[in-house]
UniProtKB/TrEMBL annotation:
Entry protein name: Amino acid/amide ABC transporter ATP-binding protein 1, HAAT family
PROSITE patterns: ABC_TRANSPORTER_2
Cellular component terms per the entry's GO annotation: plasma membrane
GO BP term, pick one: D-alanine transmembrane transport
Domain ABC transporter positions: 4-253
Pfam family, one: ABC_tran
GO MF term (any one): L-isoleucine transmembrane transporter activity
Species: Desulfopila aestuarii DSM 18488
Assigned keywords, A-Z: ATP-binding, Nucleotide-binding, Transport
Gene3D superfamilies, sorted: P-loop containing nucleotide triphosphate hydrolases
Length: 265
């Protein structure tokens, strides 16, 4: 059984068909990328998968159970965490507090425990803070910045903080929406190594949207290509690199014709 199974996923906004009948499956332990030109429907796909949008048609099954109709927090509790295309940190909260917010779906203490700060609450709170510190270091946030406001971190560290917050929920599946956006080449290389570590050391399956083809081709075991809300190709990096439908979607029909002319010549 695939970890994630999507059949005929469709999402419309009025007369606009943002996702049109996409079917997709993801095996446990893989790193898979979703690529496509701007406006292809990639982020809408993530938003529908995580309960921000309700699908117009189709099914989404995770670990064999349907996610359709569940709230984002319920889906997170099932084992899916995500980052966003535009950084969505709590800017006026500290680094540690941001990571702690990712743990709320698994916190066990009742409102009474929290209100009166009973020993069980204090114990869980201390354990959570220690875990947050470990995650901060794991994703590569350097320095003693746990009590600094998130807004004061450099851009690359804010990206890493989003990943730490997502990992705090102990996901089975991590969704990354353009995680390398705005990073310099060194930061991109470092974040790519982090993704491999997350899969290999934590056993987390990764599905990412990314425009940096160096990242996509270096890290992906499989690639799904979307264009105008539809899946137009799926395969290994080598297969996608030479797929004429993909080349046309990115570069236009002239590029495909030129490629064919070169082969003929």
């Amino acid at each position: 059984m695939a970890l994630l199974e999507i059949e005929n996923l469709t999402k419309t906004f009025g007369g606009l068909r943002a996702i049109g009948g996409v079917s997709f499956s993801l095996e446990k332990g893989m790193i898979v990328s979703i690529i496509g030109p701007n406006g292809a429907g990639k982020t809408t796909f993530f938003n529908t998968l995580t309960g921000i949008y309700k699908p117009t048609e189709g099914s989404i099954k995770f670990n064999g159970k349907s996610l359709v109709g569940l709230r984002p927090d319920q889906i997170a509790a099932r084992g899916i965490s995500r980052t966003f295309q535009n950084i969505r940190l709590f800017q006026e909260m500290t680094v540690i507090e941001n990571i702690l917010t990712g743990m709320h779906v698994h916190m066990k203490q009742s409102g009474i425990d929290t209100l009166f700060r009973l020993p069980t609450f204090k114990k869980e709170e201390k354990e959570a803070e220690q875990k947050a510190l470990r995650l901060m270091k794991y994703v590569g946030i350097k320095g003693d910045v746990g009590n600094d406001l998130a807004k004061n971190l450099p851009y690359g560290a804010q990206r890493r903080l989003e990943i730490a917050r997502a990992l705090a929920a102990d996901p089975l599946l991590l969704l990354l929406d353009e995680p390398a956006a705005g990073m310099n080449p060194q930061e991109t290389e470092e974040i790519t190594r982090l993704f491999r570590r997350i899969r290999e050391e934590m056993g987390i399956t990764i599905l990412l949207i990314e425009h940096d083809m160096r990242v996509v081709m270096n890290i992906s075991e499989n690639i799904c290509v979307m264009d105008y809300g539809e899946k137009i190709a799926e395969g290994t990096p080598a297969e996608i690199r030479s797929n004429t439908s993909v080349i046309e979607a990115y570069l236009g029909r002239g590029a495909v014709a030129g490629q064919h002319e070169e082969k003929i010549a």
